[in-house]
Structure formats: C-alpha cells, structure tokens
Amino acid sequence: MAFQSKKLINDPNDVVTEFIEGLIETYPGLQYLDGFPEVKVVLRADVSGANYDKVAVISGGGSGHEPAHAGFVGEGMLTAAICGDVFASPNVDSILAGIRAVTGPMGCLLIVKNYTGDRLNFGLSAEQAKSEGYKVEMVIVGDDCALPPPRGIAGRRGLAGTILVHKVAGAAAACGLPLADVAAEAKRASEMVGTMGVALSVCTLPGQVTSDRLGPGKMELGLGIHGEPGAAVADLQPVDVVVSHVLKEILSSETNYVPITRGSRVVLLINGLGATPLMELMIIAGKAVPGLQLEHGLAVDRVYTGSFMTSLDMAGFSISVMKADQAILDRLDAPTKAPNWPVGAEGNRPPAKIPVPLPPSHSIQSDKTLSRPEKLSPQGHMLEVAIEAAATEIVNLRDNLNEWDSKVGDGDCGSTMFRGAVAIVEDMKKYYPLNDPAETVNEIGSSIRRVMGGTSGILYSIFCKAAYAKLKADTESVVTALRWADALEAAIAAVSKYGGASAGYRTLLDALIPASSALKERLNAGDDPVDAFIISAEAASNGAESTKHMQAQAGRSTYVPGNVLASVPDPGAMAAAAWYRAAALAAKEKYSTA
Q1: Is there a catalytic annotation at residue 69?
Q2: Which of 73, 397, 489, 562 has the least C-beta neighbours within 10 A?
Q3: Which of 69, 166, 226, 296 is catalytic?
Q4: Which PROSITE patterns match (predicted)?
C-alpha cells in the first residue's frame, strides 16, 4: 500500500531553491542568479557574459537528478545549469536568464536531454536568444538503449550518458574552440554513448506518497529518470546476471544504438539513481569491466563510478558505455573544477555571497502596465466567472491527475497544473484586464509561463499566445462566440505545430480538437453560443475518455506498455476537458442568471 514518504525538507515547493542555496555555500566556484523562485540558475562565479571569451556550455532540466546538472558547473565543464522544478522542465525565462548571464561574443551551446518539455523550452529560448543577437547552438542527447526503436515523435530519452557529453563539450570550450567546433564535438560524443537503467524501487516526489507500483522481490528494467515505468518488470536477479543483461541491451547489434564493435575502446560510467549505496555501485563496476572485456571484446580505457544523474530516492543504477578514441579521452581527462565530476574540489568558501543580479533582456520592453478594471463590463464578468471556475476545477482535480500520471508518466501532472491554476486566480484579482479579452488571455499565458514547468507549461503558454494573436488581429472590443471559436482553433493549431502532436496521439489535443470542432459546427448551425459551448464541453470530455484506447505517440507515455495505458486516460487530456467543461458550465449559469 502507498504511504507518506519521509523527507528532510521544509515546504515541498521550496526544495529546489533551498538545494541551490546549500550548493553555493558548499562550493566556492559556484553562484546563482537572484531570481528565486521563478528563475533558478547556477553559474560559474568567475564568469560574466559580457566579458566571457570562450563558448558558454549550458545544460539543465527538471530537478531531482542531483548532482545533475548544477553539480557539473565549473571551469572545464558547464558554464551554467538551469534548474526546473522537480521533474519539470525549466521555464523559458530561466533559460534566457542563464544564456544572458554567461554568454559572450563566442556564443553558447545548449546541451539538452531528449524530453519533449526540455526540447520545447530550450528551443524557444534559443530562438529568442538568437533574436537578441546571441550565437546559440543546441545538441539533443538521447542515449537510452532500453526500449525498441522509438515510435511517434518522442525518440530516445536522455539519460546519464549526457554527463559525458557535458565533459567533452566543456573541455572543448575551455580550449577556446569556436562554437561550431564545440557543438560538433558534443554531437559526436552524444552519438557514441548508450545507457540503460535498472530500478529496485520507485522514487517519491517531495510531499507525495510513496508508490507501491514495484512490489517486493521485483526489479524494473529500462526505466526513465522521472519514475516512469520501464520496459519490463522481472524478478530480482544476482547482480552478475543483471549487469550482463544491461550490457547486452546497450551493445545489441539488432538495435545498433551505439557504433561499438569487438575491438573498440570504451569508457564506462556506473551511475547510482539516488538510494544505491556506493558499495553496490562498486560491485556493479567490478562486474561490468570484465563483462565488457571478456564477453564483448572491448578495451575499457576509463571507469567512472558514483551518482551522477539520479532520480530522487530511487534505488537502482544505470550503465553508460561510450565509444572512445584518443580525442574523446583527452577531453575526459582534461582538468575541470566542476564539483561533482570525480576529481578533488579546490578553494576556500568566502564568508558571504551576494546573488548576481538578473541580467536585463535585450528585447525592447513595453511601458504599458496592465491592471484589473475598477468596473467590469458584462463581458468582463463572464470572463471572470469562467476563468475562476476553470482554475478551481483544476485545483480540485490535482490528486486525481497525479494518480493517473503516476501510472503513465512522472506523477506530477496534477501538481504542475495546480501551480498554474493558483497563479491564474491570484493574478486575475490583481492584474488581468478582464474587459479586454485578448489581453486577458495573454496574461493567463504569462501566469502559466511564470510558474508552470514541464511540457504542460510551455504548451499552454503557446496555446495562450496563439489565441491572443488571433483575438488581437480583430480590433472590435466585443469578442463574439465565433471569434472565440477561431481563437481556440488557432491555439490548437499552434500547439500541434510546435509540440508535434495531433488527434489520436493521446495528448490534451484529444480533448480540445473535438471541442473546437463541435463548437464551430454548432455556432455555424445557428445554435445559442452558451448551448454550443456546453455541447463542445461534452465533446471534450468524450475525447479525453477516449484516450484510454489510444497508443501514445508523444510525451513520456510513449515509453509505457499498451496494457497500462488502456487502464488510464491521458492526464493532460482529462485536465483540458475538466477546465473547459467547468468554464462552459459557469458561463451557462452566469448567462441564465443575467
């Protein structure tokens, strides 16, 4: 049965900022940007972007994988690490702040693990930074070897092999190479490494109960680093058997994920997932080295053992094998001051540190200040009740969404949506210009972008921005039902364009696309707008429920077996249907009492 986990924390919402504070007190070479809690960036204390004369190497992602990524910031490795909330991609504002803080004339390289949220957030940040005049390149790392060749658009996951890519890129940058050459070395390194993980327990997110998904005497093969289910569950075996199986999967000639053949030189990285004692990791290393040499005919030139990319308190390990030549070995052997690379730390901690101020944006800022109107128009009143009802529904649905997501994802869908809903309600009371529908939609997007990490946050930000643009294109002050329908259609098209999903991919679009189609159909047929809204909400609910029968083609659910998916609807689709239906019912009630 599930039970409340024990954690040495204060408020679960503060774990990342408090981790960063402890990190920079521990290591004299690290500093952070003064942007808590929205901006969580760790950077080298000796680097200032305007004067930095080398390529900046930046990585990051959701927290909970410590020491990755902040523990690998230091001369000869990362220049900055962008920290998202636990298991949630960092938002665009944080990534841009990190780029602006450390990038000089030589430009910067973004090293991104292959998860949809990371790709979207880092990708949008790269495009924005380029528009501000920065030179930016991005390398995606997908080193997972546990699953069959990928379906859909998700691709192979980024795992602990990313740390070796960090080291190669950081050493290349430290030599003063230009951006194109640093990116080329990082890309080549990412194509040389393969990883597979094994879990003995699932991880527990701060403030949540411990899942009982993995029973006693069982182990999970090929899991992801966010607690999502692996490729298979098996009986626990002796470590010799487990290590042999993992090496065979990584080096399989059938999948051909890594270009390693008999006679190749390799580097071995044994990674603990958070709760595995060093003794057991060393046992694994002691079995893996002769396994590579005797079973696979490989020369093992370097071995790194420790906890590099964890999954909170998960018991288990991953093995990464990288094809090596002298050039890669030279990069791995190059000196670095990154505190968690397996070398000694240097320097004394100063008595006090003052946070580095957030760098200003290079983009032109508007002087326009938005605020809540003193008196709401009828349209403003309708917007207010619909927004409040939608947000309240998401707040009430948090635990259900987390429960569904724990079975098909990383278990934080409800918590992520909850943060966005709470921010929307709070900001609406202060800032939303409710008499201006277009600007209100834009402000909803701003609230979401500020507090919601992960794929949901960036997708809903894109959703709101596209709807805002469509509404803004018409100068009429009153927004008709057809204009709302057009805005919904434009928002869905933008999410599909940038997220890569469409109908039937088992995403939030499977709720919103039927809703949009039904709304347009009923309005064009001359139905009353409120009745059309209610009918379209029913279509959204039916669409969300239908995701039980879909094979996932986007997001982390693509890694989950079909029999598990068949028992649970897509959490993102259920959330979308819930807020849409709540808004429709609130509008109907408001209309009937008006």
Answers
A1: no
A2: 562
A3: 226
A4: DHAK, DHAL
